Amino acid sequence: MDIVMERAVAGDVPEILRVRRAAEDWLAGMGIEQWPRAGVPADVVSVQVGQGEWLVARNDDAVCGAFRLLWSGEPVWPGDGVDAGYVNGLVIDRSHAGGGLGSRLLAWAGDLAREAGATALRLYCVEHNHRLRRYYVDQGFRPAGRGRFASGGTAVLFEKQLSG
């Protein structure tokens, strides 16, 4: 699998949304309320891409994975003074699920965060998504508490220390 990983550009917005919408549908079909269907509009993703937040993995020029790398986890993560990178919205095209792409993207996020001076990589998921919680632990993240979504739901927080 020849994968190219790079910062997203404006033309990637429809592809990011295609992968995200397919993941939303798949999660809903599994009874997992991780993301609301069509919860992120194109104009919001477009602004985020313009701010350099989205990173993508491409296979044959099609986006097959994406995530946002942020420098604050608010409001879900409390501000605690830790220099951390925050992975948000990690999504893999279902045709690439199980092939190690998620691991590669998380490793890349860790590398980017470390290069920016972060000492930790953080992420979260809804509390009832046990499959994703196990996945994050398998990727070397440790549970680091609970947070609250603006909607009132509970998030499980995960953190991975980045070595120099």
How does this model look, in words?
- With 164 residues, the protein is an alpha+beta fold.
- The protein has four helices and seven strands, in the order βααβββαβαββ.
- It has helices at residues 13-29, 42-50, 101-115, 130-138; strands at 3-7, 54-59, 62-70, 84-92, 120-126, 142-148, 154-161.
- It has a seven-stranded mixed β-sheet with strand order 1-2-3-4-5-7-6.
- β4 (84-92), α3 (101-115) and β5 (120-126) form a beta-alpha-beta unit.
- α1 packs across α2 (42-50).
- The two termini are 29 Å apart.
- The model has no long low-confidence stretch (mean pLDDT 90).
The Cα radius of gyration reads 15 Å
Number of strands: 7
Main pleated-sheet profile: 7 strands, mixed
Extract low-pLDDT stretches: none
Helix percent reads: 25-40%
- What string, H for helix and E for strand, traces the elements in order? EHHEEEHEHEE
What structural class do helix, strand and pairing data support? alpha+beta
Strand numbers in spatial order across the main sheet:
1-2-3-4-5-7-6
